[in-house]
Amino acid sequence: MGDEPVMATNDDASECKRGAVQLGYWQDSYISSFVRHMEKRAPEINRGYYARVKGVERFIQKFLSKAGSLAQIVNFGAGYDTLYWRLKEEGIHISNYVEIDFPNVTSNKCYMIKRNKELLQIIHEQDGEIKFSSTDMHSGNYHCLGVDIRNLGLLETKLQQAEVNFSSPTLFLAECVLVYIENDCVNRLLQWISSRFKSGLFVNYEMCNINDTFGDVMLGNLRARGCNLAGISSCKNLATQKARFQSNGWHGTKAWDMVQIYYNLSASERQRIEKIEFLDEQELLIQLFQHYCICIGWLGQEFSDINFEEC
User: What is the pLDDT, as a whole number, of residue 126?
Assistant: First the structure.
């Protein structure tokens, strides 16, 4: 079975996001360039994706407002994510943006970018050349790299090829990525990052509180699709999520379940999206939110006061 079912979760998440964008939950003018197919999802799934996207986005904004134009972003398991193009559209300048995923996924993404004039124009730098290989792409400050993050030697080599500066403030993003990786590999990855980078913020969106009936159903669904949840023991609760950072050299960590995240988003935005689709069972949404979280870890003191709550 290998990693194929895990790669398929990228297609699934991308289709969910495209469907929610189509309904007007949030704006993303680039997702349709990567995702053609859409399936109608239940309203609570769409609201779940809304909270996920907006929650992660708030941490990205807080990081960028502290790090400024020196900022680098390393997006693990990036799939068909469109963040680079959206930041460009907003006129936000960062020094380096790196996407990492399985080579099968990145070769598809590179192919799509190569064939899309609009996407290519946005990543193209004045006088700069765009370098493609079958799985990788380098253009100015955008890099798409095919590498299994369990292979730290190759990961370091590829990051050096992308001219990542280990001294610059770096944002690491992972959405439902670490849960598929053996705990010792995740520990090694987190330890390697904390020993190589001086200043950074890791934002991890993932399952939590899975030790109940609802959690069992969630895990059963994923296992039925062939997904081996090798890192599930770190998803027991918020404490186990934070423990990974605490025991691997990070200077601090905080975590919030998605109930806290959702009700901390702007009330007017929540009212707007709650009108898009009628939701029968509020309890189901709350249960869903209780089983996902955002956990952050930081290196250096620059990001130690980042909180989710609005200042």
Answer: 66
Q: What are the C-alpha distances in Å from 137 to residues 127, 134, 304?
A: 17, 8, 33
Please tell me the distance from the alpha carbon of residue 33 to that of residue 25, in angstroms, as a whole number: 18
Contact, 65 vs 310, CB < 8 A? no
**Contact by Cβ (8 Å): 177, 150:** no
Global confidence as pTM: 0.96
Q: List the one residue out of 7, 10, 17, 53 whose CA is nearest residue 38.
A: 17
Do 209 and 260 touch, CB atoms closer than 8 A? Answer: no
- Identify which of 295, 303, 194, 167 has the alpha carbon closest to the alpha carbon of residue 248: 194
Query: What's the CA gap between 286 and 256, in Å, rounded?
Result: 14
Per-residue buried b or exposed e for 237-248, using 16+ beta carbons within 10 Å of the residue's own CB:
bbebbbebbeeb
φ, ψ at 185 (rounded to 5°): -70, -40
Question: Is residue 102 classed as helix, strand or coil in its secondary structure?
Answer: coil
Q: What is the pLDDT of residues 186-216, one digit of tens each?
A: 999 999 999 999 999 999 999 999 988 888 8
To 10 degrees, what angle do helices 4-23 and 43-67 make? 90
